[in-house]
Design brief:
Number of strands: 10
Number of helices: 0
Distance between the termini: 19 Å
Radius of gyration: 20 Å
Shape: elongated
Order of helices and strands: EEEEEEEEEE
Largest sheet: 5 strands, antiparallel
Length: about 150
């Protein structure tokens, strides 16, 4: 039996046989209610933040190119709630998702904390017993050797 330990990101990620068990969101994890994804503001003149969808404005507008965290799934006919990367008075404000571009994670662990992923490390690919990444910054992979010729 082989054992590999690699740095991982916070949160709990469960992989079975080296493949994720659910669809992935722009942040690289599974899509679900309440998930927060990373976006870039693409409204050239700035993006207005509202107290509620279509409600009162919360100044100032978000600047073009700003990276923010907001709901992964739009609700209320295309609106998303803000959770990260905005002034304190705009937290939990709402913006129209059409003016946001998802920021996709690149390489390594999907949350960007460094480490090793199944896509870049052949030892992690197809892990027979699965791989678990725990919030403490630790990933453990166990792989059984198959003995040929025995039934």
């Amino acid at each position: 039996m082989r054992l590999a330990v690699a740095g991982a990101a916070s949160g709990l990620t469960l992989l079975g046989g080296g493949a994720a068990l659910a669809a992935t969101a722009p942040h690289g994890g599974p899509v679900g209610a309440g998930d927060i994804c990373r976006y870039e503001v693409i409204a050239r003149s700035g993006l207005n933040v509202h107290k509620t969808p279509r409600g009162k404005l919360i100044p100032p507008p978000l600047k073009f190119g700003l990276h923010i965290g907001a709901d992964c799934k739009a609700s209320n006919n295309g609106w998303v709630e803000l959770h990260q990367g905005v002034p304190k008075n705009q937290l939990h404000g709402w913006v129209f998702k059409r003016y946001l571009k998802p920021i996709k994670p690149t390489g390594g662990v999907s949350t960007g904390a460094g480490g090793t992923s199944a896509a870049t490390n052949p030892m992690l690919a197809g892990a027979g017993l699965g791989a678990i990444a725990l919030g403490g910054g630790l990933a453990v992979v166990v792989r059984r050797r198959q003995v040929k010729g025995l039934s």
